[in-house]
Each structure stands twice: as C-alpha cells, then as structure tokens.
Design goal:
Order of helices and strands of chain B: HHHHHHHH
Oligomer: heterodimer
Helix content of chain B: 55-70%
Number of domains of chain B: 2
Number of strands of chain A: 0
Strand content of chain B: under 5%
Largest sheet of chain A: none
Distance between the termini of chain A: 47 Å
Strand content of chain A: under 5%
Chain lengths: 196, 173
C-alpha cells in the first residue's frame, strides 16, 4: 500500500497538498512543545530544560516503531522508503558546523520557521542567516565538493552496520532513550531556572 | 507586566505526536520531514532568476536540478514548510503566544542576540547543505529509517553543541 505517492496511489498534486497538511501538523506540534523559543531549545545544553531531547527521541522512536509495524502489517514497503545516504566526511563535518550554529543561534531550520510563525524577530534573522549560509555553500561549491562527496558508503542502515536486526536495534535504542530521559529529568531538578 | 507562564504540551506527548507526523510523511511520500531543503529550493530559484547564465555553470544548481526536475518551488518540502508556518501560527494563536519580540537572555542586548542569531543561521545553513539535511531531514528523519548517516549527523550536531555550550553560556543563562 504505502508509500502512497511512490506507489502512485495518489497524484503528484495530492502529494503536495498532503505535504502542506503534514507541515501544519509539524509546525503545530513543534510550537505546542515550546520549540518556538530559542531559550527553551538551548536549555537542553545546560540542563535547565530538556524538552528538545525528550521530544526529539520520543518522535524518532515513535516513527521508527511505526514504520517497523506498518511494514509488518504490509501497510508500507520499506524498500520504497527513502533511507538517507551516508557520506561519512560531510555527515560529520556538516553536523559539527550545524552544532555550532545551534548553540550560537539557538534555533535549527525547522524550529526557526516555528519561532518566526509566532513573531520571534530573532527567528526571522536566523532564517536570513540560513539563506546566506546556503548561498555561500552554493557559490563556493567547487571549493568543498570534494569533501561533500568523500567517503560515500551507500545507504546503509545502522542496524546492518552493527550486525543487528532492525527490531533488536530499535529495542536497544528505546533502552538508551529511557536512560537519557531519566538523566534529563534529573538534570532539570539539578539545574532549575524559574524564568526564561 | 508579567504574563502568566505559558503552558506547553507534555514533551513525551509532543514527541509521540511529532513521531506520528513523521510516520505520516513517510507513509504518504516515502520520505521523512525536512526544513533546510525548502530553503535550498528558494535559493536555487532566486539564483537562477537573478543570474541565469552564472547559475548554469554552478555545480550546486546542477546537482539540485538532477535531483529535482521541474519548478524548485513546487516541491514537497516547500509545501511542507509553508504548512509549518501555518501550523506554528495556529498553535501560537490558540496558546496566546503571538507577539513580535526579540527573545534573549537578560545578560545580553537585543542587538547581540540578533547578531548571534544571524551567525548561527549562516553556520546552520552552510552545515545543512554539507550534511545533506538539518536536524529534521537528516537527523530526525534519518534516525526513523535507521540511516547510519542520520545517526552520525545527529551525534555530530548534539555533540558539538554540548562541547561548545560552556563557551556560549553567557548568551543563554
């Protein structure tokens, strides 16, 4: 059955319309969870508010389990679901640069749109920065395209790399997440802040 | 005037709901959520409109065109991110959080906050291109489909932010 658009069960325009609807859900949940506030987001790096960690890992696990069960029930063909390719060098260096952007700017791209949607001026400026950053990458593409393409490993699943089945890996990730949630709850009590 | 403390959703409930949205994206389109991809589409559109001849020589635009034939603004992530603006606005309206303001720690000025936001945005924009997606498209969506690269990028983003947190603490706490 799924994915609907890949199996051509819905038209290209319906797919775009559903993208808009899914985006509304995405923005609504992010804002309801407090992701429109940079000071709340940055809290995860100082322990006073760990909402980012809790929402992020709960979401990843929910979607991961959902896909595994959907596959089990025959509702979605996982071979047709896009698995992000792994270019080792750029995955690490890109992540490092993004991590620096996160702690300096207080947002990531998705959350900055969320912040801008409720009027955060710092989020608008962050988005301006995003456009500049993408433009700089594009203009200097020749300088870093070697690094961008280096160490291509295909599209491996982390479970394959570790020699585990998808289900066992998912189970282990849930255990790790529960341990992190426990630490997160402890940190919020240890480093409390009243107003931010 | 001190407004009453805004009430947010329980984070675990929020996480499950976000997971369902991400699952829906995969079920419908065969791909996860994203954010920086929509900015890339806009930049490619702007560059090809302003400087068509120069953009033809750009490897960046060429690579994009190979992956996305057709109008770059008529893509999944552009529609999705438009939805994010609507959804965020609706949530803020229901919760009474719509307000034009610069949010910053009392220890820094608005001007400094905006300068930091700009710097962070430039870095994040650049990094998201190098890393083939941001926290949404690469880390979160990649993890949901068990992509090795998704996990690596997630660890690099959060690891770096934690490693640098001490040096930027005065901006936040």
């Amino acid at each position: 059955m799924g994915p609907l658009s890949v199996n051509e069960l819905i038209s290209a325009n319906t797919n775009l319309f559903l993208a808009f609807i899914i985006g509304i859900g995405f923005g609504f949940v992010l804002e309801q969870s407090g992701f429109s506030s940079s000071r709340k987001l940055a809290g995860v790096f100082y322990g006073y508010d760990t909402v980012v960690l809790k929402v992020f890992f709960t979401a990843a696990i929910t979607a991961m389990l959902g896909l595994l069960f959907f596959s089990l029930f025959g509702w979605v063909d996982l071979n047709l679901v896009y698995v992000n390719p792994t270019y080792l060098t750029s995955a690490i260096i890109g992540g490092i640069i993004m991590g620096a952007g996160f702690i300096i700017g207080g947002y990531c791209p998705g959350t900055s749109f969320c912040g801008a949607s409720i009027g955060k001026i710092d989020a608008f400026v962050f988005i301006g920065g995003l456009f500049l950053g993408v433009l700089i990458f594009g203009l200097g593409y020749k300088i870093w395209d070697g690094m961008y393409m280096a160490k291509f490993l295909g599209s491996p699943k982390i479970s394959q790399t570790l020699g585990l089945s998808d289900g066992v890996f998912a189970f282990l990730l849930i255990i790790v997440a529960l341990a992190m949630f426990w630490v997160a709850e402890w940190a919020e009590k240890k480093f409390p802040r009243k107003e931010y | 005037m001190e407004a009453k403390k805004t009430k947010y959703l329980n984070p675990y409930v929020g996480g499950v709901l976000l997971g369902i949205v991400l699952l829906a994206a995969n079920f419908v389109s065969g791909r996860g959520l994203g954010a920086s991809g929509a900015i890339k589409s806009s930049v490619v559109t702007a560059v090809t409109t302003i400087a068509p001849s120069a953009s033809e020589k750009s490897g960046f635009v060429k690579e994009y065109r190979e992956e996305h034939p057709g109008n770059p603004m008529k893509t999944w992530l552009v529609f999705e991110m438009t939805g994010v603006l609507v959804g965020g606005f609706l949530s803020g309206a229901f919760a009474g959080r719509l307000k034009l303001k610069v949010e910053h720690s009392p220890n820094i000025t608005s001007k400094k906050r905006l300068l930091l936001a700009l710097t962070g945005g430039v870095l994040f924009g650049f990094g998201s291109q190098l890393g083939r997606g941001c926290t949404s498209g690469s880390a979160l969506s990649g993890m949901a489909v068990l992509s090795l690269g998704g996990f690596i990028t997630m660890m690099a983003i959060f690891g770096t932010a934690y490693a640098l947190a001490y040096f930027f603490r005065k901006n936040w706490i």
